[in-house]
Amino acid sequence: MKLLAVRRLLRIQRVVIRYRLDDLLFALPLPWFLLALRFALPWRWFPRRTLDLSRGARLRLALQDLGPIFIKFGQILSTRRDLLPEDIADELMLLQDRVPPFDSRLSVALIEEQLGRKINEVFSRFDVEPLASASVAQVHAAQLKSGEEVVVKVIRPGLKPVIAQDLAWLFILARAAERLSADARLLHPVDVVLDYEKTIYDELDLLREAANASQLRRNFEGSPLLYVPQVYWDWCRPKVLVMERIYGIQVTDLATLADQRTDMKMLAERGVEIFFTQVFRDSFFHADMHPGNIFVSTVQPWSPQYIAIDCGIVGSLTPEDQDYLARNLFAFFKRDYRRVAQLHIDSGWVPAETKLNEFEAAIRTVCEPIFEKPLKDISFGQVLMRLFQTARRFNMEVQPQLVLLQKTLLNIEGLGRQLYPDLDLWNTAQPFLERWMRERVSPKALLGNVQSQFEQIPHLANMTRDLLERMSQPHAQDPAPPWKRRNDDWLLRLLGAAHLGGGAVLAAGGPLSELGHWPAAVMVIVGLYLVVRR
Fold it and tell me: Which of 18, 237, 245, 268 would bridge with 420, disulfide CB 3.0–4.6 Å?
């Protein structure tokens, strides 16, 4: 185990003790032997320093102290008000964009280093006070010399070592879970952590975020559903991003949205439509849709438009994943549980020997209660727990490539609860999926598939020709036998032996000994290298 990982564990333990997070754990209905564990914890033997903070504030401050990975965990939790007490959810909401900023002098120095120019050479105005601060970066308002109002995003310094230490512990826990629990192995925890490792490091590259934002903006160009700010590529670097400044209402500011008479029902329905459009039409979806990254335009409140920022994390699906998900969701909407069970078996998510009738009955038991109810009456936490029970029973495997999609679905649900609790999620999404399925089998789509198949013909012809040639001359590409191989190593070894002999002569006081011992040392080293090299 690396020393940095050990130091990080001690840091986590210190934060837990400082904010007494163990009190939150022991307040849960745990078995008696776990509750008895609190008497074995040394820091509970002594009187503690009084913390005049609520339990939610203590949890929020602890996550802030522990860094970006823990902050992001808190951001995800903050959208799950159905799973958290109200006071904790309210505190975790502050993690969305109110993380304490770092020193602005460091921010300015980093921007100048990345751009290779002084701040006043690029911007006619630069606000030293941050506009917002999040787990990975902070944002400053500015104005370009050409007059455009922009925001400048800069990565927090010193993040990579902390992230590496946290990931080291996540890998240790994931591997331990896979070794100790058959249920955990079905969830592929190591693969999930590997995927998260790639995601978090990608988020540290702001050029990648700029490219994602440009793609998402192009996908929704001219759309009344979603607006993505323009990226100013001339001033973008790996640790600095400059993009158009937007003016909107944060999606969780329900009072301001109500004051401008925003159509909340349409806003919620458009959020669902945007999600399904990104996933199925574009196969390119914003995968960090917590409330701090989503705003609502003030231009037409009767026809509200979303504004999306922070495209550092995006997801995409293969055509096979798209087709599989669409067919599953479509079968769910039709309550065709037998079709859902068959799709799971066909895709390999559950073993082929699974009894179809039993699996169908289990899925029906989990899913039937959630239909024909408004969103406010559906406890997705309960549904997920039942689904995991079903997964353990039938050895269902969670697919790591869909983790981002699952996370985004959780965010969408959390937002839907806040915006319009009476939203019928299923009836909103079903027409979109039906239209997408029809378009996939339309003449235009079929013609496009035929065209793509024709484009593959030259490649297939080359592959066929190469295969026939190998079959007609099966040993043409075999390596030559040892006695036919050209081998010049003996010459180099002979030269090395000569160097060794010459070095020995010089060291023993040969004709060039007056030059000192260094020529002998050089000849011996070169000789050894030539003799032992492969």
Answer: 268
Structure tokens at 344: 């799971």
- Residue 512's pLDDT is 45
Burial grade of 67 (CB within 10 A; 0-12, 13-18, 19 or more): buried
**Bridge partner list, 308:** 294
pLDDT of amino acid 485: 46
Q: Name, in order, each residue with C-beta under 8 angstroms of 333's C-beta and a sequence gap of 6 or more.
A: 426, 429, 430, 433
Blockwise average pLDDT, block size 10, the chain, 534 residues: 68 82 72 71 67 82 82 70 72 75 90 93 93 86 94 90 81 79 69 77 91 95 94 94 94 90 91 88 85 88 92 84 79 82 79 85 82 64 59 65 70 78 76 78 58 61 70 61 51 65 61 53 68 58
Contact 316, 212 (CB under 8 A): no
Phi-psi region of 84 (alpha: psi -120 to 50; beta: other; left: phi over 0): beta
Query: Could you tell me the pTM of the whole model?
Result: 0.70
Please list the residues that pair with 244 across neighbouring strands: 150
| Nearest alpha carbon to residue 327 among 315, 345, 314 | 345
Give the contacts of 358 (CB within 8 A, at least 6 positions apart): 394
The span from the first CA to the last CA of the chain, in angstroms, equals 34
Q: Is 312 exposed, middle or buried (0-12, 13-18, 19+ CB in 10 A)?
A: buried
Which class for 531: exposed (0-12), middle (13-18), buried (19 or more C-beta within 10 A)?
Answer: middle
Quickly tell me which residue has 């820091």 as its tokens: 43
Strand order in the sheet with 306-308: 226-227, 306-308, 294-297, 248-250
Token pair of 385, please? 């727990």
What is the per-residue pLDDT for 82? 53
Helix (H) or strand (E) holding 308: strand 306-308
* Count of alpha carbons within 13 angstroms of residue 207, beta-carbon side: 5
Q: Is the separation of the CB atoms in 22 and 41 below 8 Å?
A: yes
CA distance 525 to 506: 13
CATH topology for 104-157+205-315 is Transferase(Phosphotransferase); domain 1 (1.10.510)
Separation CA 138–CA 104 (nearest Å): 10
Count other Cβ atoms within 10 Å, centred on residue 76. 16
Task: Identify whether the C-beta of residue 271 lies closer than 8 Å to the C-beta of residue 306.
Answer: yes
Can you tell me which residue has the tokens 């699974």?
354
| CA atoms of 501 and 520, how far apart (whole Å) | 10
What is the distance, to the nearest Å, from the Cα of residue 154 to the centroid of all Cα atoms in its chain? 19
Residue 2 CB contacts under 8 Å (≥ 6 apart), including other chains: 168
Please give the radius of gyration of the chain, using alpha carbons only, rounded to the nearest integer: 31
- What amino acid positions are annotated as catalytic residues? 288
The span from the CA of 6 to the CA of 166, in Å, is: 10
What letter does residue 8 receive in the DSSP assignment?
A: H
- What is the enclosing helix (H) or strand (E) of 159? helix 159-180
